[in-house]
Amino acid sequence: MDKIKHQLNLFIIPFSFETNGNFDKIVEKIDDMKMEKEVHQSNNRSVWLPIQHNSEDRFFGHINQLVPNDGKVYESTIGKLWGLNQLAWDLYGLPKNKNNNVVLHTSKKKEIVLKITDVQLYLFETGVGFLIYDIYYPSISHMEDLVLANYYVKRLKNFGGQMHLLKHANDKSTYEMNSNFANITAGLLNPLVVTSYFEKDNLEPKNALVFNTSILDKSFSESDGYITKLQRFLFETRRVFKESYQPSQSEYDIEKNEEIYKPFNNSYWGIALEGACNIVLHTGDEITNNFFSESYIMNVKLNYFYMYIIALHQRYALLHLSVQAAEIPRDMDTLIESNSSIETITKLREEIAYFDLRSSFLQVSHITHQNKVYEYIYRVLHIGDLHRKLQSEVESIASLLDIRKAAVEKKSLERREERRRKNDNFYVTITSIFVVISTLSSIWSLYTDWWNEESAPEAFVISSIAIVIAALLGIKYKLSDKDEPQKE
Questions:
Q1: What is the pTM of this model?
Q2: What's the rounded mean pLDDT across residues 249-256?
């Protein structure tokens, strides 16, 4: 009743990596990765091969140039896309042949047969990247089974389970791959300095986002109560939950739920933080049915998925910047005393400005329904909210820093003024003492000339005391006059 005619399952692992301010050098590093000659005697020993994603000419020109589809690099280019060379797959624990069936054994005693048909890598200048597994389930033909399979595969450690490889389609013998998607992912990203997988344990990938498109057979839309099933499938595929999850009825509401968009009578999009889905139903029009059966899946992969990546990049780039903002000391005294923290704020403000100029997009296409899907993705991923919150937080910290720096500078100026006054007072005192001594030395000869020898010392002492008292009163007056504020 819920038979699937065509399926697309893309598992996306977001991560951040260290660029050290030189993204071009990272690109060169990935381009230059080679397999050992002893391992593969091939003319093309590159581990990662650049991909031209060939999106249709439905996007704005600068949107196509973000990750160019013609092999060129433009001023607006912010990222690059590679595919894993098939010859290198077995080096990372993947099957040598894309046609090999992999059996996923989970700790829940579930067995899922799948094919890994492609592995791609997106890297962006913001220090955010996405590793993508294209997975096909050859033995799954019903939506309920696909929902359950995606639920288990997205857990990259598969609840502790491992994967086995079927050597041949008719050969049931297997050998232990001794790996899972978490370990394979870590190996593939080993050349990069990964700083986060945007999860609680940032140093290990645990979950993937899931992008799914399912085209259902004619029998589904002709069955009784198919709308109720459709509502459930839209919820489970966009959230990547299994049937045991029981949401509120509002999650099922196709007309009012903000995570659901219906661009055409037979096409439904579901967007969530956990993933995105597109479920297509059979119609009474054969031309329409032929379009969805023949070319639609490829159209989704080349165009809609590219839009999804552009939106995901914005979300995770903002989260990446938010992590950097959270590491800024909140204690203003510590912040002011730390030159590195001030440099961090300056650098962060520059990165936000560059993000605004180069990576932030409210619209991507001049095709109405495509742009509508993008707008839904943009809104559900809370990109605008993240952007406003980050800008507000960083600007608030910068404003507080400016206020506190002004206060510190004022105190510093007051301390310098106080030191200057003390120095002036010291110099006045010392100068006055030398003046007194010099005066006393000068008048001694006068006293010896004017008075007789018996009375001269007494007169000198009396005069000296009077001069010293006068000098002290003068010094006191002078110092008190310096301490009084100047009147304008």
A1: 0.82
A2: 91
